[in-house]
Amino acid sequence: MTEAVRSIPRPLVKTNQWVIVISVLLTWVTGYEWILLIPFIAGILGLLFGFNPVMQIAKLFLKKDPKSYIPEDWEQQQFNQKIAVSCLGIGFIGFVLGWNTLGYVFSALVAIAAFVAILGFCIGCFIHYQWRQYQYRRTQQQ
After folding, report:
1. Which long-range contacts (C-beta less than 8 Å, at least 24 apart) are formed by 128-136?
2. How far apart are CA 5 and CA 9, in angstroms?
3. What share of the chain in percent tops pLDDT 70?
4. Interval 30-78: pLDDT, tens
5. Domain residues of the chain, as ranges?
6. How far apart are CA 73 and CA 56, in angstroms?
7. What whole-number distance in Å separates Cα of residue 124 and Cα of residue 137?
8. Bridge partner list, 73
9. Phi–psi pair at 138, nearest 5 degrees
10. How far is residue 66's CA from residue 12's CA, in Å, rounded to a whole number?
């Protein structure tokens, strides 16, 4: 019996990535750090409750059945979302505390990673793969 693999349609993942990039850019341009809370809260809700409002809204605009799109691995996306939420949170806190360098560095990290993923290379996936390889090699040595 095969186990069903959880996945997310690629357009929903891309929409989430665009929301991250645009939110960071708007934060930089306007100086309103609260804009970072949009992808941050959406990401937290996705991680804790499996409900990402950005993806749920984007789902309304899908033209085909969600299963007909290229699937993205749910577990991998959860890993990526943890990284994104961490960077967005640290960036937001940095801006709120007036530690703008911290805010810019962490918001830039997540925006660059999201934009590079939009272009086709997933930095989070690479990190996740390397982590899994490290864990595997460690168990083989024991």
Report:
1. 128/76, 128/79, 128/80
2. 13
3. 97
4. 999 999 999 999 999 999 999 999 999 999 999 999 999 999 999 999 9
5. 7-141
6. 17
7. 20
8. 7
9. -65, -40
10. 9
**6: which DSSP letter?**
P
Residue with tokens 């991680």: 47
pLDDT of residue 142: 82
- Joined tokens for residue 35: 């804009």
Mean pLDDT in residue range 86-102: 98
Dihedral of alpha carbons 31, 35, 39, 45, sign? positive
Amino acid at 61: F
Q: Residue 123 CA to chain centroid, in angstroms? A: 11
Quick one: tokens of 75? Answer: 């577990």
Is the pLDDT at 2 greater than 70? The verdict is: no
Contacts (Cβ under 8 Å, ≥6 apart) of 24? 36, 91, 107, 108, 110, 111
